[in-house]
Prior knowledge:
The chain is mainly alpha-helical. The protein has helices at about 1-30, 35-40, 45-55, 65-75, 90-125, 130-145, 145-160, 175-210, 215-220, 225-265, 270-280, 280-310.
Amino acid sequence: MQKYILKRLLIMIPTLLGISIVIFLIMRAIPGDTISAMIGTQYQLTEAQAESLRAYYGLDKPLITQYFNWIGNALQGNFGYSVRTGQPVMSEILSRFPLTMEITILSILLGTIFGVTVGILAAVYRGSFFDAIIRIFAMIGLATPSFWLGTMIIYVLSVHFKIMLNAGNYVAFSVDPIGNLKQVISPVLCMAFSFSASVMRTTRSSLLEEINKEYAQTARAKGLRERLVIFGHALRNALIPVITLVGYQVGYLFGGVVIIEQVFALPGLGRLLLNGISQRDYALVQGSIVFIAFIFVLVNLITDIAYGLADPRIRYD
Length: 317
């Protein structure tokens, strides 16, 4: 296991380098640059002042020089400074990341608990009216965009119930836990809705496959009750695809939270990234995406390790 973990950690290096190259080139391919965005929105600068700022931020150098200067500093934990705020990029990321992580973790927990529970019930009562309702619910969840659901929640609460969500006045969990949960519950429900649908379908199909295998039939032949067959034997094997799904869905949830934070006006990492893209804040966008990619790769590694814990038959030696 240790050799496998070390190997995966080494593979992370070229993966993150490749991502950094791609996002670096994409940002430079967008028309305009950081200084042009500043001139067009906030500041009225002369061309000489603009060139001076480009030189100050190193934007006047060849692309390959810009990249190696940036990646060299990034390897030392310095992602540069945000042109928009003047603050270190890493400080900006770390200040916004807790909110994004909170929404993501709560969405995963809520979606997994609900999806696994209902998926098990749908498998146990397969072919019933309850199973049909659950399958329809799962299809609706998979087909419904989280940002549309968020917009509908805001519309219904504000128009029909005269309840205005406290957008724009974010309160940290450490300051006011109840107030914080009231603010994040709506985006969490939006993201957990579609996520739970995926977990539900995977749990149902995987458990149905396991309870029809020979070892389950043998357990029934020995006189074990159906409940013991499912929860004592089949469920553990059925959860392996669910673990895979949860691990890989973390990256998609990080992508979805970008839009959700914008819909609900929450100052998380996703909203920071959107603002950085719109204002051509190269250092901020590059640092944020590499940071998210690192989290995604790390979660995938943890997911692979969880395979071995869920199924002793899986070995990485």
